[in-house]
Structures are given as structure tokens and as C-alpha cells.
């Protein structure tokens, strides 16, 4: 994997996301104001930098314009979170995921530009990391250490071909359990099912098959 991500805020959630991204194979820039947290994680990520997220000039040395995604995990500091979200979007980062502590923060972070907002009590760090790196995936739910449910975009080469012919189970380890078409979720999945442009599918798969 050649993708790069920045994680702002190295509390428990931010560290977990950083470790999971590294485990997946991404490059990770870990960012926090606390020098002790930077020292603690420095050997486990690609790069770790201490900055004051409230200092607008500090973002210039981070190279956010080269990042494929950013996680903002500073919900305890509303102003710093807002600044980091805005800086990331201004730099052209295509996907910014922000951690919120409640629905009020969720609303604020969405309004200032966050593409997705997670509340840790509802959304785990592993799920956040996989949602960040897997550009074909719309959602990721971990059922166990080995099994996950994923909502995935239908690939162009799958269009208008019967499900039986595609043989997704053998080729990719994907077991289709539902199809979403025009916002309607259909669970009647048969071997003659064909996919249209814009369809997404829900599949059950081994979590190690996420390289699709």
C-alpha cells in the first residue's frame, strides 16, 4: 500500500487508529502537541511530529497536500479539531474523518468540512482505519477477529454479469448478502442477479481479504 495518512491527536483512539493503519500497510504521520506522546509512538509510525494545532502556520510543515486521508482525534479540544479539519480540507485532503464526543460536535465538524464523523462509543478505531484506507469500501463492520461485513462499490467489470459467472466467493472471498440499488436494500440474492452502475453490495468476508 502506498497511501499516506495523518492522525491528529494521540489519545487512546488516535493511537489505535495509527497502529491499525500501520498494520494495514499505510504510511502514518502522527501529530500531537504533547512531546511525550510523540516520543512514545515515534518508533511505531512512519513519522511523528509535535505541533500546536491552534497555530495555523504549523500545518505548513506537515505536507497535508500529499495525504490521502486525515483523522482528527482531538474532540477534547474543539478549537484545535476545527482548525485541523479546515487545514486538511484547505490542503485538498480527499477524506477527513473527525472524532466527536457527542452529536453536537458531530454537527459542528460536518459543517466545517469533515467528510465523516465518528463517535468512539459507536464506531471503533479499527473500523475507522479500514474505512479510511479502503477506497472501494463504503462501510466496514468487524464481526470478529476474522470476519467482517463490508459495503462495497460494484466494480465496472462486474456490471451486467450474472453473480454465478462472477464467482466472487472463489475469486475474492466475498459472500454477497444484499445489494443496495437506488437506496433500496434488497436481500433476495440469486445466481442470476446482475449488477447495474451505481449498485453497492454488502458482503461477508475474511478481514484479510481487504486488498480488493
From TrEMBL:
Gene3D superfamilies: NAD(P)-binding Rossmann-like Domain, Regulator of K+ conductance, C-terminal domain. It holds the Pfam family TrkA_C. Residues 2-119 form the RCK N-terminal domain. GO terms for biological process: potassium ion transport. GO terms for molecular function: monoatomic cation transmembrane transporter activity. Residues 135-212 form the RCK C-terminal domain. This is Potassium transporter TrkA.
Amino acid at each position: 500500500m502506498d497511501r499516506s495518512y495523518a492522525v491528529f491527536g494521540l489519545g487512546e483512539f488516535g493511537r489505535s487508529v495509527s497502529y491499525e493503519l500501520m498494520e494495514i500497510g499505510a504510511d502514518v504521520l502522527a501529530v500531537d502537541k504533547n512531546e511525550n506522546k510523540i516520543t512514545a509512538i515515534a518508533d511505531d509510525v512512519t513519522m511523528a511530529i509535535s505541533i500546536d494545532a491552534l497555530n495555523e502556520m504549523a500545518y505548513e510543515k506537515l505536507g497535508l497536500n500529499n495525504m490521502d486521508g486525515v483523522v482528527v482525534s482531538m474532540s477534547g479540544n474543539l478549537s484545535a479539531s476545527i482548525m485541523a479539519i479546515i487545514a486538511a480540507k484547505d490542503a485538498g485532503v480527499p477524506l477527513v474523518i473527525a472524532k466527536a464526543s457527542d452529536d453536537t460536535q458531530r454537527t459542528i465538524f460536518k459543517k466545517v468540512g469533515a467528510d465523516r464523523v465518528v463517535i468512539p462509543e459507536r464506531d471503533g478505531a479499527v473500523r475507522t482505519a479500514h474505512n479510511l484506507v479502503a477506497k472501494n469500501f463504503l462501510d466496514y463492520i468487524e464481526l470478529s477477529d476474522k470476519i467482517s461485513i463490508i459495503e462495497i462499490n460494484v466494480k465496472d467489470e462486474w456490471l451486467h454479469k450474472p453473480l454465478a459467472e462472477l464467482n466472487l466467493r472463489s475469486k475474492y472471498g466475498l459472500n454477497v448478502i444484499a445489494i443496495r440499488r437506488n437506496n433500496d436494500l434488497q436481500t433476495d440474492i440469486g445466481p442470476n442477479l446482475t449488477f447495474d452502475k451505481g449498485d453497492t453490495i454488502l458482503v461477508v468476508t475474511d478481514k484479510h481479504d481487504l486488498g480488493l
